[in-house]
Amino acid sequence: MLSWQVQEAKNKFSEVIERASHGDPQVITKHGTEVAVVISIDQFKSLKARSQSLVEFLLESPLSGSEIEVTRDKSLPREVPEL
Fold first, then answer.
1. Where are the domains of the chain?
2. Angle at 19 (CA atoms; ends 41, 37), nearest 5 degrees
3. How far apart are CA 77 and CA 82, in angstroms?
4. Topology of domain 2-59, per CATH?
5. 68-82: string of b/e by CB count within 10 Å (b at 16+)?
6. Which one in 3, 26, 39, 69 has a CA-CA gap of 20 to 30 Å to 78?
7. How would you classify the pairing of strands 26-30 and 2-5?
8. Within 13 Å and on the Cβ side, how many CA atoms surround 24?
9. Is the overall model pTM greater than 0.70, yes or no?
10. Residue 14: how many CA atoms within 13 Å on its side-chain side?
11. Is the pLDDT of residue 63 over 80?
């Protein structure tokens, strides 16, 4: 990844965009601290693709609707030995 200071990124914005569009993320720094990244739209869409919640994943599982019974152990936790 190439790193650009804010002012340099503003001055060479077309180059920053061109490099990012070819799949090379461009890091923008301000006072030496990384503050932003310019990425291609394809990379952005991939990152923003809707991910499932755990509940949705389990409901869509092949085991959904099966007769598997899950129980929780309700016994008290083990005692912590004194040191």
1. 2-59
2. 60
3. 15
4. YefM-like fold (3.40.1620)
5. eeeeeeeeeeeeeee
6. 69
7. parallel
8. 10
9. no
10. 0
11. no
